[in-house]
Amino acid sequence: MDHYTRSARTAFSGLILNRKPLRPVGDPAAGTTAATVREAYIVVRGDEVLFDTEQGEPLLLSPRILEGCAGIRLETMLLGDDGEISYHAVSFERLPEGTARCLSTLGDFLPLRPQASILPAHMTALLGYASSVAAWHNQTRYCSLCGHRTEPRPFSLAQTCTNPDCGMEHYPRINPAMIVLIHHEDERGERCLMGRQASWKPRVYSAVSGYVEPGESAEDAVLREVMEETGIAVTDIRYFCSQPWPFSSSLMLGFHARATSTEIRLNDAELQDARWFPRSEIPALLASGELVLPAAETISRHLFDAWFDGNLSRTP
Ligand SMILES: [Zn+2]
């Protein structure tokens, strides 16, 4: 399996949209070659999306419904089109109060993350994309250079500073993070290293992760974070796949790595616990509930499954 296929199998990824969208019919700048595209608006509030809970589907609002609530031109972020529908993200937090109240009567806000195991993969990916962009739109209300208000730049995924003397363009921020499943083999057999944070559900253990810092490659971050969090030295770092993670606008870069030491030291107290899990004992630990693996939508679970099933990346 190639890296693209592996990544496309993770939740929130594999979305194919034309991100240089067609202009809607009626726009004088559309020209004569633009195809007819309908428009749909996805309303995001924090990590939640506006749903039609009776249908069990996200509400893809038409401009007509939106205008019925807004009565004014809204600030929305254009995501792209699939040839038929042009999708826009709406940050609920940036709506005028009356508009927000009106929109919230159209459906119910549901947390996005559980939808990854319910909705079709392409819809999960679309909502994840909308969620990341809406969060950035909400958090980027003012120019970081001069402090004036920002506004969406039409037909692009950018905001522009409204100060004519500045005009700085702002683009969505993505935070690169590495996540690594560490493995080790000796005469006692194969085992993998996973840790847990105090805030997680009980007995959930996951691969080690952390943000890539300035001046680091993703592999540098693997070496540093693993040493800081677990005291384990690693080598043979191999890229596996990546995943866009909408809840912190992260791009998760997934690796496997082989440990060259085995004594665990929780150096920076980031983890509440870290343990070696022998492959031979894992089925019983799972059956007893002593170990709970990360949820299926996480790249951590994909890294674990690949190791457990003997499908580590062999790419040099
Ligand atoms: Zn500015």
Q: What do these coordinates show?
A:
By secondary structure, the chain is α+β, with helices and mostly antiparallel strands. The protein folds into 2 domains: 3-139, no CATH class; 175-308, Nucleoside Triphosphate Pyrophosphohydrolase, CATH 3.90.79. Helix content is 22%, strand content 29%. The protein contains 7 helices and 15 strands. It has helices at 3-8, 63-70, 97-104, 121-139, 218-230, 282-288, 299-308; strands at residues 38-45, 48-52, 57-58, 77-81, 85-91, 108-111, 150-152, 159-161, 169-170, 175-186, 189-196, 208-211, 234-245, 250-259, 273-278. The strands form 3 sheets. Strands 1, 2, 3, 4, 5 and 6 form a 6-stranded mixed sheet that branches. Strands 10, 11, 12, 13, 14 and 15 form a 6-stranded mixed sheet that branches. Strands 7-8-9 form a 3-stranded antiparallel sheet, with no helix packed on it. A hairpin with a 6-residue loop joins β7 and β8 (159-161). The chain is elongated, with a radius of gyration of 22 Å. The mean pLDDT is 91.
Low-confidence stretches: none
Distance between the termini: 15 Å
- Would you list the SSEs in sequence order as H and E? HEEEHEEHEHEEEEEEHEEEHH
Which secondary-structure class do the elements indicate? Answer: alpha+beta
What is the strand tally? 15
Q: Which ligands, by name, code or SMILES, are bound?
A: zinc ion
> Strand-residue fraction?
25-35%
Shape: elongated
Residue share in helices? 10-25%
